Amino acid sequence: MNTARGAVRPLYAQASGSPIRAMLALAGREDMISLAGGHPDPALLPIEWLRESLLEVTGKLQGRSLQYGATEGQPELREASAALLTQRGLTATAAELIITTGSQQAIDLLARVLIEPGEGIAVESFNYPAALQAFRFAGARLIEVPTDAQGMDVDRLEPILLTERPRVLYVVPNFANPTGAVMPLARRLRLLELAAQYDVTLIEDDPYGELWFGEAPPPPLVQLNQRADSPAQVTYMTSYSKVVAPALRLGVLLAPADIQRAVVLAKQAADVHSGSLEQLKLSAMLGSNCLTPHLDVLRKAYAAKSATLADALRRHADGLLKFDTPQGGMFVWARLRSDLPLLPTQDWVDFGLQHKVLVVPGAAFSISNAAQPWLRLSFANPSPASLQQGAERLGRGLQGLASRTSSNTKTTPERTSA
Ligand code: PMP
C-alpha cells in the first residue's frame, strides 16, 4: 500500500515504542531470566478465587454481564471500589468514581481532557514510560521536576511552577515505577500547598500503594487534600492490576465533578465502557471479602522476593550496584558504579541477549531517553531461584563491562536511545 503522503501523524509515526514491551518479546526465550517487566508472579494470580466468583456471575447476573453498560462502570464495582477506598481512609462515593480500562486509561483520558497541545505537564525525573507516552500523545511538553530517593523533590518544585507555569502535575507517591520511592508525609503536604497556591491539578497515580512490606505509606495526596484548609485539585487513580490481576484491565478514577464529566465524555469516545463481564467478575470477587487476605499473601510473598533479589545482588554484584532494599512495590532501582559505561537502551538489550538476563536501563524512564547510570530490576515475576540466578548473571555481565571499561579506561559517551 502506498503511504507516501504519510497517513500517520508525525507525533505517532516518529514515536518510539516502549523499550520494556520490546524486552518482553525476548523474555520468553529459552533460558532467559527477565527482571524487566512489572508483571505479577503467576503463582500469585488468584485463579481459584476467580473460578468461584465466575460461577456467581454467570448464575446470578445472567444477561447483564454480556450487555452494554454505563460508561462510568457497573454499579456493583463502583460500590465495591468506593467501599475499598473508604476502608483505606479516603472519602469517596460510588457516584464519584469511574471504572477505567486499567489505570493506564485513566492516565490517557486525563491527559486528553486536562492538557492543551503544547502545554507543559510537570513530571518526576524518572517515570512510568506509558504515562509519558500518553502525555506526549496529548501534545504535552514534559517539564522535569528533580526526583530523589524520597520521590519528587518538592523543595525544587516552586521555581519550576513560577517559571514554567504548568497547570497539571503527574506524581506516583507510593513505591514509584521505576524508583520504588515513597514520598514522605511532609513532602506530600508541601506539594498540596504548592498545588493550591499555584492552581496546579495533581494526577496522583497509585497502583502500588497496597503492596507495602513493613509499614503502610503515608496517606494518599487526595486523602490529605480532603482535610486541607485550602484544598488543591487532585485526581486519584488506583488499579486492580497489581492486587488482583492485570488481565482484567480494570482501574478506578476519583476526580472532581468537572473533570469526572469530561473524562466520561472522553471514555465514551475511547471505548464506551470497560468490559461488563470483567467488571462483574471483579465485583463478585471483591464481594467475597477475599481481597484483604489476598493482600496479606501478596505482601509477604513480594517482601520475600524483594529480599531474595537484594541479597543475591549483594552477593553477586557487590560494589557494582548501589540500591536500597525496597519497602514495597515491585522494583529495585539500582545505581551503576560510576566507572561503568553509560549505555543506550539497545546495548542493554544486547547485554540481556548475551548474558541471558533482561533488565531495564534508566534511559527508558527518563524524559530525554538519554543513557542513565540506573537499572530497574523487577523481583515480582521470576521464581526465587530465577531471581538468584538472574542476579548472578547480571553480576557476571557487569563485571565484564567493568573490566572492559578499565582496560579501555574511557567510558562510552552519553547517547540517546532509539
Ligand atoms: N501507573 C504506573 C506507575 C504503572 O507502573 C502502571 C503499570 N505498570 C500503570 C499505571 C498502569 O497499570 P494498569 O493499566 O494495569 O492499571
Secondary structure: elements and pairs:
Elements: H1 10-13, H2 19-27, E1 33-34, H3 47-60, H4 75-87, E2 97-100, H5 102-114, E3 120-124, H6 129-137, E4 141-145, E5 147-148, E6 151-152, H7 157-164, E7 168-171, H8 185-197, E8 201-205, H9 221-226, E9 233-239, E10 251-254, H10 257-270, H11 276-287, H12 291-316, E11 321-322, E12 331-336, H13 345-355, E13 357-358, E14 360-361, E15 374-378, H14 384-408
The structure holds 4'-deoxy-4'-aminopyridoxal-5'-phosphate.
4'-deoxy-4'-aminopyridoxal-5'-phosphate binds next to helix 5.
CATH architecture of the largest domain: 3-Layer(aba) Sandwich
Q: Given the C-alpha coordinates, what overall shape results?
A: globular
Q: Count of DSSP E strands?
A: 15
N- to C-terminal distance: 26 Å
Q: CATH superfamily of the largest domain, called what? A: Type I PLP-dependent aspartate aminotransferase-like (Major domain)
The level of helicity is: 40-55%
Strand order of the largest sheet: 2-10-9-8-7-3-4
Count of distinct structural domains: 2
Helix/strand order, N-terminal first:
HHEHHEHEHEEEHEHEHEEHHHEEHEEEH
- Write down the Rg: 22 Å
Name some characteristics of this structure.
binds 4'-deoxy-4'-aminopyridoxal-5'-phosphate; Aspartate Aminotransferase, domain 1; 4-stranded antiparallel beta sheet; 42% helix; 418 residues; alpha/beta
